[in-house]
Amino acid sequence: MGTPFIAFIGPTKLDGYNRKLSSSKQPGSIPKTFLDAMEVREEVFVQEQGVPQDNEFDTDDARACHWVIYASINTTTVPEQTDADGNLVTRKQSITTSKPIGTIRLVPFPHPPHPEPGSSYAADALETAPLSKSPAYIVDRATTYHDGKEPYIKLGRLAVVKEFRGSGIAKLLVSAATTWAEQNPSHFNPSIKTMGMEKMGALLCDEIPVWKGLICVHAQEKVEKVWARWGFKVDDAMGTWIEEGIKHVGMFQRLNLEKKEG
Ligand SMILES: CC(C)(COP(=O)(O)OP(=O)(O)OC[C@H]1O[C@@H](n2cnc3c(N)ncnc32)[C@H](O)[C@@H]1OP(=O)(O)O)[C@@H](O)C(=O)NCCC(=O)NCCS
């Protein structure tokens, strides 16, 4: 594998995406980077982990930022051939293609309420209502690291294709997403001009939700230790719940936003 490179796609209209179909059968209007993210998610979550195809794409995808990591793969098309004396007869020929091998997404607030401990959901039950119908933030129950009010962003859909695991690909993706968030904190704050004070759920200017660096993850319990390596801490009060048949825990991290916005 050559040096991997990372592509970014910000919030994008994904009208026309048919969640019943795989990424390879989507209309030409859907951006390639997003289709590549879905290709990885289908390979990992749908084929490997058994999540239904219909639940893999959700309404958060259009408003999220996505990162996709690619590997350059060199494939020999014609092997080198030599004659009996060892003289070169045919030079080796190869082609280099790039393959999406990992992805992650970052969903801005608002989010649906924290899952109830002990509950069981399908992924789409946790989707946020279309932004036009929801306020900029909701008041949630307080947990260990979240007071129920502070706006937080959510990292998720972290997936690395099986044969590329264990080489730091997920680490690169998490680092790309958190660095971008650190450099673009105001990206997440709603604009009064486009939303209006009422829809923001704020009456006074100082009640307007502002992102202060809090990041949440709904982590599969079996990879909780992986997220912990990147600074996320289990939120005990969030408890555990089942999402798509897989046990999850809530984890939080607070980024230091004192660095200058890029
Ligand atoms: C979890 C997943 C994304 C990790 O991808 P990866 O590219 O192999 O991870 P990395 O190589 O970047 O490893 C990151 C760190 O976690 C550790 N790690 C990786 N997998 C681990 C595991 N299953 N258990 C414990 N530690 C693990 C690595 O040793 C590494 O530690 P280091 O930075 O101290 O060396 C990948 O296994 C995957 O796609 N799993 C299936 C989908 C999934 O469960 N997604 C998470 C949803 S919450």
Short recap of the structure:
With 262 residues, this protein is an alpha+beta fold. The protein has a single domain, classed as 3-Layer(aba) Sandwich (Aminopeptidase), CATH 3.40.630.30.
Descriptive terms for the model:
262 residues, alpha+beta, Aminopeptidase, nine-stranded mixed beta sheet, 6 helices, 11 strands, 27% strand, elongated, binds coenzyme A
Describe this structure in words.
With 262 residues, this protein is α+β, with helices and mostly antiparallel strands. It has one domain (5-254): Gcn5-related N-acetyltransferase (GNAT) (Aminopeptidase), CATH 3.40.630. It is built from six helices and eleven strands. The strands form two sheets. Strands 1, 2, 5, 6, 7, 8, 9, 10 and 11 form a nine-stranded mixed sheet that branches. The mean pLDDT is 89. It binds coenzyme A (COA). Coenzyme A (COA) binds at residues 44, 158-160, 165-171, 219-220, 223, 225-226, 229.
**Mind telling me the CATH superfamily name?**
Gcn5-related N-acetyltransferase (GNAT)
The CATH class: Alpha Beta
Structural class: alpha+beta
Estimate the strand proportion: 25-35%
Count of separate DSSP helical elements: 6
Q: Mean pLDDT score, rounded?
A: 89
Q: Biggest β-sheet, characterized?
A: 9 strands, mixed
Give the number of domains. Answer: 1
H-E order: EHHHEEEEEEHHEHEEE
Query: What is the number of beta strands?
Result: 11
State the helicity in percent bands: 10-25%
- Cofactors, ions, other ligands: coenzyme A
| CATH architecture field | 3-Layer(aba) Sandwich
Assembly state of the chains shown:
single chain
Shape: elongated
Using the CA coordinates, give the radius of gyration: 21 Å
| Poorly predicted tracts of residues | none
Q: Could you give the distance between the termini?
A: 31 Å
CATH fold description: Aminopeptidase
